[in-house]
UniProtKB/TrEMBL annotation:
First-level EC class: oxidoreductase
CDD domains to which the protein is assigned, alphabetical: NAD_bind_Shikimate_DH
Species of the source: Phytoactinopolyspora mesophila
The protein's name in its UniProt record: Shikimate dehydrogenase
Pfam families: SDH_C (PF18317), Shikimate_dh_N (PF08501)
Keyword Membrane found: no
Length: 280
């Protein structure tokens, strides 16, 4: 029996236990996967208390940056991005940090035919300046996306993400927390901000939406967001937080168990769980 879990704050809404348990059933593993409310000051103490039965931890906000502080080693990607969403515990107790958000974001786009060599994102509009935004910028650099601008409530909040983009050779421009002219023509809009943050801009951001413009809103509950609903109604392409969740979880399952699972195993489990929440 091996134990795994997702940590974060708040954590009660997380679908990670549902999708990881679905993976274990598919793989016929008698593993457990639970959720724990853990904030930044408590992470070091939590990981210090793990015994030999523990194998992996998924990390959500606000732990993605401080995860590197408690890890003994980290992947090049996690170090470059400055954020990790996964901790793997070796048999000797050492912790290895990795980032599956970047390949997860790319995988979700690729599933919809976006980000392929024949369909590289052109102008990109990213909202939010935290760890998830940094992972998005790293993915966009790998995908050789076009001009990118980053909206944040202050230049200071966007500083780490913008420095990362610069270091990757794909600098992004800073834009204040308002709808700019370039937003009306961006081929890909990515929202990494908390629930409700873009609700006041939903109408303005969907004025010129068409079937070739895509929105990736990384929230999955509540869903659809006002922005995603208006975008879909206008005929645009919409990806949601569920797409990112299941694709980044593919990498976590592989790191924790050493096995691959079909993405639909995870997606179907998550969709069933969300459906049950909607009914109650």
């Amino acid at each position: 029996m091996r134990n795994c879990a997702v940590l974060g704050s708040p954590i009660a809404h997380s679908l990670s236990p549902v999708i990881h348990q679905a993976a274990y059933r598919y793989l016929e593993l008698e593993w457990t996967y639970t959720a724990y409310e853990v904030d930044e000051p408590d992470l070091a103490g939590f990981v210090a208390g793990l015994d030999h039965s523990w194998r992996g931890l998924s990390l959500t906000m606000p732990l993605k940056r401080v995860a590197l502080d408690v890890a003994d080693d980290a992947s090049g990607l996690a170090r470059t991005v400055g954020a990790a969403n996964t901790l793997i515990r070796a048999d000797d107790g050492r912790l290895f940090a990795d980032n599956t958000d970047v390949p997860g974001f790319m995988g979700a786009l690729g599933e919809r035919g976006i980000g392929t060599p024949d369909a590289k994102p052109g102008t990109v509009c990213v909202w939010g300046g935290g760890a998830t935004a940094a992972s998005v910028l790293a993915a966009l650099a790998t995908l050789d996306a076009g001009t990118t601008h980053l909206h944040a409530r202050s230049a200071q909040r966007a500083k780490e993400a913008l420095e990362l983009a610069e270091a990757l050779g794909r600098p992004a421009g800073y834009v204040p927390w308002e709808v700019a002219d370039v937003c009306a023509t961006s081929e890909l809009t990515v929202n990494t901000a908390p629930a409700g943050a873009l609700d006041p801009f939903a109408e303005a951001l969907t004025t010129n939406v068409n079937g070739e413009r895509a929105l990736f809103d990384v929230l999955y509950e509540p869903w659809p967001t006002p922005l995603a609903a208006r975008w879909a109604q206008a005929g645009g392409i919409v990806l949601g937080g569920l797409d990112l969740l299941v694709h980044q979880a593919l990498g976590q399952v592989r790191l924790m168990t050493g096995h691959d699972v079909p993405v639909d195993v995870l997606r179907d489990a998550a969709q069933r769980a969300l459906s049950l929440r909607t009914r109650t």
